[in-house]
């Protein structure tokens, strides 16, 4: 069991700035990459599904500067300098949730979203899915996550249509695409 109080994300961590074709064009500290309208940078999102037809969601820590306390997909972050997306996704699942799963890349998309007057996400985001058996409860990192929950896919649909439950914009965009174009990928067993 790892120490789940370790800080795993840093304001001065260099993010990979990319062009719309995902070519690296430079590096910028995470804090600066999210100021104003944000600078386009490489990112990833992970969705873990189980053999019961559920997906693991996380509620972001109140310590997060962008969308604190909002519900989102299982895990999301940025690859580090010199790190492949495959390495970054495995690392981040361990750091945030102390979980592992074989991940499959599904699609990549660009989005920009502003959070109040605090800053923005402007990402070229690669979306991955993984599958596990049962409902493993993560040992989540409280500097990143305040709670996790396994939800049926229909319940997630209703959450995203509710004004009472705050969800991150990238999660909503990714979920819609998963449900429209990749439904068969969501129901595979581990």
Structure write-up:
The protein has 190 residues and is of the alpha+beta class. It has 5 helices and 9 strands. It has helices spanning 30-33, 85-97, 153-160, 169-181, 183-186, and strands at residues 14-18, 24-29, 41-50, 54-60, 71-72, 75-77, 103-115, 119-132, 145-152. A hairpin with a 3-residue loop joins strand 7 (103-115) and strand 8 (119-132). The chain is globular. The protein starts with 13 loop residues before the first strand and ends with a helix.
What characteristics describe this protein?
single chain; 190 residues; alpha+beta; four-stranded mixed β-sheet; three-stranded antiparallel β-sheet
Strand order of the largest sheet: 6-3-8-7
Q: Main sheet? A: 4 strands, mixed
The dominant shape is globular
Low-confidence blocks of residues: none
Helix content: 10-25%
Short synopsis of the structure:
The chain has 190 residues and is an alpha+beta fold.
């Amino acid at each position: 069991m790892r120490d789940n109080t370790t800080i795993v994300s840093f304001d001065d961590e260099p993010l990979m700035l990319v062009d719309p074709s995902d070519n690296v064009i430079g590096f910028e500290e995470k804090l600066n990459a999210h100021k104003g309208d944000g600078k386009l940078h490489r990112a990833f999102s992970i969705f873990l599904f189980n053999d019961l037809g559920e997906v693991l969601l996380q509620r972001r820590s109140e310590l997060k500067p962008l969308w604190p306390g909002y519900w989102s997909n299982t895990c999301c972050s940025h690859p580090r300098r010199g790190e492949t997306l495959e390495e970054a996704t495995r690392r981040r699942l361990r750091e945030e949730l102390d979980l592992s799963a074989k991940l499959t890349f599904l699609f990549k998309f660009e989005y920009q979203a502003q959070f109040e007057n605090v800053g923005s996400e402007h990402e070229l985001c690669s979306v991955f899915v993984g599958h596990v058996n049962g409902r493993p409860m993560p040992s989540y990192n409280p500097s990143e996550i305040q709670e996790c929950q396994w939800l049926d896919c229909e319940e997630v649909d209703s959450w995203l249509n509710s004004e009472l439950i705050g969800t991150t914009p990238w999660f909503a965009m990714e979920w819609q695409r998963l449900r429209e174009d990749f439904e068969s990928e969501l129901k595979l067993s581990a």
